[in-house]
Amino acid sequence: MASTIYDAVGGLPALVRLAHAWHERSLSDPVVAHAFSHGYHPDHTRRLAAYWAEALGGPALYTASVTTESHVVRLHSGNGEHREMDERAVACFESALDDVGLDAEPDLREALVRYFTWATAYMATYHGSADEVPDGLTVPKWSWDGLVGGTDSRPGRPQPQ
């Protein structure tokens, strides 16, 4: 087994393919597409892939070249609770794994789905207002065992032991 999920996936090129497949599935889902109804950056899939790379054990491409974690969380905050959208986004992600051939290795697929499910909930932490998001958040890291202790920098969040 590869040492990181990032390596097991096949690095950034594979994550770009996955991000593109997930984005296409999301845009075709009538509920999930609402999240993109106000527009999105033209390089959204490459940015998303860079974010996933950083979270899954790869290089810090996202925070080194795009923006901060606090900014990312603010972009996803202040939208109220949206459980159905989150569940459907996860379903789109699972289908995207199949679309790009990341369904052959059960341990990898499980780790990716666990990450994406957790990350979807994490991004919705501050559903009341983006103003609640503190400065200085860092990208939480995810390993084969789940959230890496000490990497979720949200105030008051318990860390795995």
From TrEMBL:
Domain of life: Bacteria
Pfam hit, one: Bac_globin
Keyword presence, Metal-binding: yes
MF terms in GO: heme binding; metal ion binding; oxygen binding
Residues annotated to bind heme: H71
This protein's UniProt keywords: Heme, Iron, Metal-binding, Transport
Lineage: Bacteria, Bacillati, Actinomycetota, Actinomycetes, Micrococcales
Protein name from the UniProt record: Oxidoreductase
